[in-house]
From TrEMBL:
Domain PUB: 53-130
Spans annotated as Disordered: 1-31
SMART domains membership: PUG (SM00580)
Protein's name in the database: PUB domain-containing protein
Membrane-spanning parts: none
Length: 195
């Protein structure tokens, strides 16, 4: 536009940027970093070390599903609570070391409704829920990549081993054929000398 100077445009863009991205203070950044670290420690060593790898991953995926459901639909009452007596919840969270502690850190607190135990999410912990879900997602993605890499390495190792075995087998068969051929030639030579 010919009527607006470049500096005025730049200032307007800067003002808009300042309004849309709130700057966190050093103390706020430190507090958020501490919360992230707490969640990381709850995952590993909290859940990952005391449980078998497949069971730990299963529990982490259950926690991620609960978190993502609640973040996607924060007002859905079904996602705001879970019963510790539910078979899946009992197996994945209650019976696994560290998993229920993680759920509590996400913002689920134990309460009793109509003589039934529940873990109910309190909305003031929404930031903890977001951080916890992000940590879970990162950890699961990292572990999945590691597992794929290990599986690929094992497959390559197996293929290499099989190729080496096949090479040895072929060399052995070639040696046997060569030996039979030498024996046949010697037999003919002996027969020729005898005749």
């Amino acid at each position: 536009s010919p009527g607006i100077s470049n500096s005025a445009l730049a200032e307007a863009a800067e003002r808009r940027t300042r309004q849309t991205t709130p700057q966190l203070s050093a103390a706020q950044l430190a507090a958020e970093h501490e919360r992230r670290q707490k969640f990381r420690r709850l995952v590993d060593p909290g859940i990952a070390r005391p449980n078998p790898k497949d069971k730990a991953m299963s529990s982490l995926k259950t926690l991620l599903t609960i978190s993502e459901n609640l973040l996607r639909e924060p007002n859905n009452e079904k996602f705001q609570q879970f019963k510790p007596t539910n078979t899946v919840i009992k197996r994945e969270l209650v019976d696994r070391k560290g998993a229920l502690e993680f759920a509590i850190e996400l913002g689920f607190k134990p309460e009793v409704k109509n003589f039934q135990p529940y873990y109910i999410f309190h909305k003031r912990h929404i930031e903890d829920l977001k951080i916890g879900a992000a940590i879970l997602k990162d950890y699961i993605a990292t572990e999945t990549i590691k597992e794929e890499r290990i599986a690929r390495a094992k497959k390559n190792e197996k293929e290499t081993h099989e190729a080496a075995m096949e090479k040895v087998k072929l060399a052995y068969m070639d040696d046997r054929k060569a030996k039979l051929l030498r024996d046949e030639i010697e037999k003919e030579q002996r027969a020729g000398r005898a005749a």
